[in-house]
Design a protein that fits this description.
The structure is a single chain. The protein is α+β, with helices and mostly antiparallel strands and about 80 residues long. The chain is built from two helices and five strands. It has a five-stranded mixed β-sheet with strand order 4-3-2-1-5. The relative contact order is 0.27. GO terms for molecular function: structural constituent of ribosome. Belongs to the bacterial ribosomal protein bS16 family. One of its GO terms (biological process) is translation.
Length: about 80
């Protein structure tokens, strides 16, 4: 089953997240199928970039977003 979730990047105490499509059985930061955006909660203002066309495509083929991604995408 495919999932749309955040994968952590960046360094200590400066997290940066990519929004990725991956197999739900894989670990958080392991290989992913496609990167469809990013989220930077540290910068001021917070930065969110999401490719809505690809996000909607993955939803249409059955990928399930995590709670955090669902909340971010609704913004």
């Amino acid at each position: 089953m495919t999932a749309i979730r955040l994968t952590r990047m960046g360094r200590n105490k400066k997290p940066f997240y990519r929004i990725v499509v991956t197999d739900s059985r894989k670990r958080r930061d392991s290989g992913w199928i496609e990167s469809i955006g990013y989220y930077n909660p540290v910068s001021e203002p917070k930065v969110l970039k999401l490719d809505e066309e690809r996000y909607n495509y993955w939803l249409s083929v059955g990928a399930r977003p995590s709670e955090k991604v669902k909340k971010l995408a609704s913004k």
